[in-house]
Amino acid sequence: MKTLYGIPVSPNVAIGEALIIDNERFRIPQRFVVHDAVEDELDRLNAALAAVSSEIAGNRDLISDRIGPQYGAIFAAHLQMLSDPQLLDELRGHIINQQYSPEYAVSLTLRRYAKVIQDLGDGYLAERADDLFDLERSLLANLLGRRREELSHLAAPVIVLAHDLTPSETASLSKRFVLGFATEVGGAGGHTAIVAKGLEIPAVVGLGRFLLEVSGGDMLIVDGEQGVVIVRPDEETLVRYREVVARRKDDVRILSTLRDLPAETLDKQTVRIYANIEFPSEVTVCRERGADGVGLYRTEFLYLSSDDEPSEETHYSAYNDVVTAMDGKPVVFRTLDLGADKLGRVPAAAQEEKNPFLGLRSIRLSLRHVTLFRVQLSAILRASSGGNVKVMFPMVTTLDEIRRAKMVLSDAMEDLEEKGIDFDRNIEVGMMVEVPAAVMMLDRFLPEVDFVSIGTNDLVQYALAVDRTNQEVSDLYQETDPAVLRLLKMTIDAAHEHGKMVSLCGQMSGNAHHTALLLGMGLRDFSVPPASILEVKRVLRSVNLSDCESIVARAFEMESAREVDQFLRSETKRLIRDHRKSSPIEKTVGGRG
Ligand code: PEP
Ligand code: MG
Fold this sequence. Notes:
Bound molecules: phosphoenolpyruvate, magnesium ion
CATH topology of the largest domain: TIM Barrel
Shape: globular
Strand content: 5-15%
Number of strands: 16
CATH class of the largest domain: Alpha Beta
């Protein structure tokens, strides 16, 4: 058993077999063979070794003929590795002595060799480690033959392990078969993390190098709550985690009893809890959890999940589905936020930038490609005739940007009017506050918009100069940093002074231990991942505004994110516990606080 520590990004626990992508792209179904089958399994291994060797020899001859023997020598080296007596002994030993399947023996042995070579840390040797991975791939492909299972054709539940997963790869994971995932890189604020939470797939990222320690088919536990991955857990650990899973199911069932209770504090302050979505299909869960609307629809995922640039019709049809399903409740369409970690196949997106989060991203990209922007705005406007639609511009940094974006919106309106197409002329227009410059200039921005929504995922990275996707600096990526708290307070106060609605749609508002703090700062509109709606509701139903204001006063005296975080966690637990003792209705609504 081996325990690895990373960054928890999507809660709950997954228990299942590993499927390593990147290196294998298919899983090894069986780890052990029955005693009687050892001879047959050795034959299978020998056949695979012979087939791969002859394939490599063929390549060596072909390349030597075409471009010269010095290139053919690359393949000769592979052949040599494959006939190394020590390697062959080890492979066969695993099958004979441990009764491992040939697939498992291949994966284990070649990865062990690769790791030894990689640990030597030399550039040339690192390439030799890659050669071993190549051999592993070829042997596994041969051994598994038609039993190969590509990620998109999974037929049995697995835990996906990868060096990295892009947000669009994550978006394509089937919830039915992917129990959880874990990656070597990635940070808490990246869109991969956000999508995982949206899909409610337990996930841990930023584990550092670990793929060499795992083989496909290994049993795994992914604890997305604590950021822990346990490889080949012992029986006691498995039993303990199965209990955690059962408790969590109970918790979800109990929380669901809150669905139809009002979202209000003990002193009757009403609060709106909207949901953040990436895909139209998520509206079902928004409704199930009783969301007051969609506070953030990340529309760019339409681009990330398709090979072609979506037409206005494709946009419209997706948007209309969401608006119709929300049945009169507000839906805030955030215009394209492409770029940085969300590249997709959009020709307009900048593909190679040195500092993509500071580059041609989001509203900057939309304003650079006005035609693309206008297509989207037309579709949003058309959808506005069917429900309660608002439009919101992301990553606004300068007044000029918001003014130009509004002009493109006006042009799109004129177009539709000329064509006699229906839309809401009074559609509310908002902007995200996710760049410190916007906070500092908010008194100038507010007259330009009907509402603002705070994007803490970016605000934290831009305020603290820390890449939200980089695990190397993830300890600095803290939503409770005192500097961030001040920026939040400034934004909420400025919006109130101007009589404008302010919501918070960054992941911060979905963490229930932030609820009391945000309420105390004056926030009344929360937009959270659907999975968090009921947990946030539980906290707000357990507090008085005066408790929350005291929490803010105390938090503002603190000097570090860690101190604030610990304080908020313990206060939240205490408030829920106290409320549970005194409330007959919610006595049963326990939970983790
Ligand atoms: C944010 O930055 O907080 C936000 C909600 O937008 P995104 O996470 O999509 O960048
Ligand atoms: Mg953002």
